[in-house]
Design brief:
alpha/beta, 29% helix, iron-sulfur cluster binding, DPH1/DPH2_3, DPH1/DPH2_1
Length: 507
């Protein structure tokens, strides 16, 4: 392969998920053997004249689905080969090549489900149920596949031509990673979008470039499709896939604008062919809808908490996804403009123990993380997070810079908040740190352990740790060697002897 500047890759990092580590030695040997065979077959090419090294990456800095650019850069790698399930997030600097496990869908079940979606669409049209959104497009079915199906568009078209579409090749247009098909079924023209997960090359786009791109598409696990409130979805893949949570958010957004009810808009063709998804994502469409409904209800609390907060911690839990730095700096600027203190906290895996180090210093956390991270976007009480986790979109809403029903609030793509402009009319200029008198429904004063008005840095310095003081010259010097304790901590021999028990006996 070649770098963006035209040069040849000299060092490639192979990223393994935890479940493939036992086979890492064999996989690396096979990769090196294959690379050597390719180089030997092209002795006169530039590839053969440049040395090529492979290194294996384990113990991922972030989630196993994210490209680990941090570790790869430590070894001066030119590219990453990512093995196993991937979130297909666009990397920030380094090209990533994904090798996901291949699997074969049940095409007959896909055809039956698509027919059912068409029938339900016709029934709703007959009842006069139409979208209230004036910008809504025509009725549309979005067909999404879990990553691992080869040549999705062409194979899906071939399968749907058998018993579904009368003229599948009537009109086929492609845009980005999805194809829109206009074909006939039951004497009516149908609009079907077939989307494929694609790993885009590293992006060096600025915030202005992002604002100039089309804002009319959703992105779910690397698969993009147009925004349209009159959509139904057919997802083909395992029931524990994180795409279901994200599709449920899109369907909830569409339903709020007069579209199909979220519970009726999504159909799942379950399959056990793909590998299970890590990160504790609970399975099932009903569970996904329940989690999303709970998350939307929690949004009002999160917004009020941001309004009342005096200190916000911007937690960056991924350094390999494009625009993470720009998003963090943009959020910090918005919060400072609103009269709040904001601190950017860079961590790896997001968990309760790391966040617990900052609960005395911040009032809430705004998380920038992988779109598929459950704990970042759909945290539960069992996760043990002591302060609210809010999304970048909720921060923008709390500051009066975005609408509650903004599409950015119904996606796990954190960089959507970059489109929010910092205007003097929108940002709430707050005076004081206790949240009183600013129109908020809650206050963070009971949660603060320090005196109101102190900064987060001062609170950190006020902490006291016992047992770490050097106390030079204050400790008595031991004059002679003495016998130490024998036994185990729950019952040393001397203690048991003093209690009149035999040494080593169990209490």
């Amino acid at each position: 392969g070649r770098r963006a500047d035209g040069g040849v890759f000299r060092k490639v990092a192979v990223q393994f998920p935890d479940d493939l580590l036992p086979e890492a030695v064999e996989v690396m040997a096979a990769i090196q053997s294959k690379a050597a065979a390719v180089r030997a077959s092209q002795p006169q090419s530039e590839i053969a004249s440049v040395p090529l090294d492979f290194i294996s990456l384990a113990d991922n800095t972030f989630g196993a689905c994210c490209p680990d650019e941090v570790t790869a850069k430590h070894y001066n790698a030119d590219a990453i080969v990512h093995l196993g399930y991937a979130c297909f997030s666009r990397s920030s600097e380094m090209p990533v090549f994904n090798d996901t496990p291949s699997w074969e869908p049940n095409w007959e079940a896909v055809r039956d489900t698509l027919r059912g979606s068409f029938s339900a669409m016709d029934a709703s049209r007959g009842e006069g149920a139409a979208a209230e959104d004036p910008e809504a497009g025509s009725d549309q079915v979005v067909l999404l596949f879990h990553p691992g199906v080869q040549d999705v568009v062409s194979r899906a078209m071939a399968a749907l031509s058998e018993g579904v579409f009368a003229n599948p090749a009537a009109e086929l247009s492609t845009s980005g990673s999805f194809a829109e098909v206009k074909a006939t079924f039951a004497d009516r023209e149908r609009h079907v979008v077939i989307s494929e997960a694609v790993a885009l090359p590293p992006s060096s786009a600025t915030r202005e470039d992002l604002l100039s791109t089309s804002p009319t598409e959703w992105c779910v696990n690397g698969a993009t499709f147009p925004r349209n409130t009159r959509q139904r979805f057919v997802f083909v893949g395992p029931t524990d896939a994180p795409q279901l949570h994200q599709l449920s958010m899109v369907a909830t957004y569409n339903a709020s604008l007069g579209g199909v009810d979220a519970a009726e808009a999504i159909a799942v063709v379950a399959t056990s062919g793909a590998e299970p998804i890590p990160d504790g994502v609970e399975g099932g469409l009903e569970e996904s809808l329940r989690v999303v409904r709970q998350r939307v209800r929690q949004r009002m609390f999160n917004i009020e908490h941001v309004k009342a907060a005096s200190v916000v911690g911007i937690v960056v839990a991924s350094l390999g996804i494009t625009n993470f730095r720009e998003t963090a700096e943009h959020l910090r600027a918005l919060l400072i403009r609103a009269g709040k203190r904001a601190y950017i906290i860079y961590i790896g895996h997001l968990n309760q123990f790391k966040l617990a180090n900052f609960v005395d210093s911040v009032d809430c956390f705004c998380v920038i993380a992988c779109p598929n991270s459950r704990i970042a976007h759909f945290s539960a009480k069992a996760d043990g997070i002591l302060k609210p986790l809010v999304s970048p979109a909720e921060v923008a809403i709390a500051l009066g810079l975005s609408d509650f029903m903004s599409p950015a609030a119904f996606t796990t793509q954190f960089d959507r908040v970059l489109a929010v402009q910092s205007t003097g009319d929108g940002a709430q200029q707050r005076n004081g740190d206790d949240g009183a008198g600013d129109g908020t429904l809650i206050t963070t004063r009971p949660l603060n352990v320090a005196v109101a008005g102190t900064s987060a840095i001062e609170r950190l310095h006020e902490r006291h740790y016992v047992g770490l003081e050097p106390k030079v010259g204050e400790t008595a010097v031991q004059a002679e060697l003495v016998a130490g304790r024998a036994g185990i901590a729950k019952g040393y021999a001397a203690e048991e002897s003093a209690q009149g028990t035999k040494a080593g006996a169990k209490h």
